[in-house]
Amino acid sequence: MTAYETLLVENRGPVTLITLNRPQALNALNSQVLAELIAALEAFDKDDAQGCAVITGSEKAFAAGADIKEMSGQGFADMYGSNFFAGYDRVAATRKPVIAAVAGYALGGGCELAMMCDFILAGDNAKFGQPEIKLAVTPGMGGSQRLPRAVGKAKAMEMCLTGRLMDAEEAERSGLVARVVPAAELVEDAVRTASTIAGMAPLAVKANKEMVNAAYETNLQMGIQFERRLFHGLFGTEDQKEGMAAFVEKRPGKWTGK
Ligand code: CAA
Predict the structure, then answer these.
(1) pLDDT digits (tens, 9 = 90+) for 235-246
(2) Largest CB tally within 10 Å, which of 167, 189, 239, 246?
(3) pLDDT category of residue 143 using cuts at 50, 70 and 90
């Protein structure tokens, strides 16, 4: 397995568990974390034995944001010229599902990284926020776009303009997170959830992910059309035949990914 300096990556059966590991900086996301995260996600996407990934941090911090110390001396030409943060597009482009398991702080880029994942499971001590305004900047990794889609304009605008944090209970109520679990059980719960997903027919997993994501990119009519076409397409797979036969024969399905 590849060794990383800012991540711990382990395979738990068919689940790739990626743990952000810069405790001295509360997992602040610097260029090395990004490069390693992309490498780990690309390896995960290519590995047929892996069906779902979990990204987590520590109990104190999922990630306290982009690395302020790395950014502080940069000018416009550096940021615009290098298209700073564009590398994060690779995270959302992962074809297999990725779950964010968030305990503690998920601030700025940390909140944005969590929102790039397919869904968020939160520990009961989780705190979400886009406090960039306090640094005289704005979200830069998609937060101003994904947060309103998740929690609505009013809460997103208030959070971006004041920097106020949202706790786990409010995050669940607002639709930002799928479920809240005790922080001590978060990683085990996320790995269990990921194992359930990894046990499904792989092409159906990809299709479900693509069509739910399409709901954010298309109007209703186009989205429904996209859903229907992908649904039709799955009837060309061996796993669809197997899945429906297994139901009729009252036995678990055995998937080939074909
Ligand atoms: N970047 C770099 N270092 C960070 C960091 C960050 N985002 N967040 C925390 N750290 C470092 C601290 O500097 C500190 O390092 P030293 O010990 O060397 O001083 C260490 O992590 C521990 O942090 P604190 O002592 O501050 O811990 P705390 O428990 O007192 O406070 C906190 C925790 C409230 C999360 C506080 O660290 C904090 O406010 N962090 C910054 C949050 C923030 O503004 N995030 C947005 C960043 S900008 C961004 O993300 C842009 C974007 O959209 C992509």
Answers:
(1) 999 999 999 999
(2) 239
(3) very high
Catalytic residues: 66, 109, 112, 132
Question: Are 42 and 107 within one domain?
Answer: yes
The C-alpha angle with vertex 145 and arms to 222 and 156, in degrees rounded to 5, equals 120
What crossing angle do the helices spanning 202-214 and 238-248 adopt, rounded to 10°?
100
Identify each DSSP E strand in the chain by its residue range.
Answer: 7-12, 15-20, 52-56, 61-63, 98-102, 105-107, 119-123, 127-129, 166-167, 179-181
Q: What is the pLDDT of residue 1?
A: 56
Helix (H) or strand (E) holding 28: none
Q: How far apart are CA 61 and CA 225, in angstroms?
A: 41
Contact 16, 50 (CB under 8 A): yes
Of all protein residues, the one whose alpha carbon is nearest to atom 15 of ligand 1 is 25
Q: What is the ipTM of this complex?
A: 0.98
Distance separating alpha carbons of residues 180 and 127, to the nearest angstrom: 12
Mean pLDDT of 204-221: 96
pTM for this predicted structure: 0.97
Cα–Cα distance, 244 to 241 (Å, whole number): 6
Q: 80 C-alpha vs ligand 1 centroid, how far in Å?
A: 23
Residue 24 CA to ligand 1 centre (angstroms): 10
Task: Tell me the C-alpha distance between 29 and 228, whole Å.
Answer: 39
CB of 109 within 6 A of ligand 1: the answer is yes
> What is the number of structural domains in the chain?
2
- How would you classify the pairing of strands 179-181 and 119-123? parallel
Residue 175 falls within a domain, yes or no? yes
Task: Check whether residue 207 and residue 173 sit in a common domain.
Answer: no
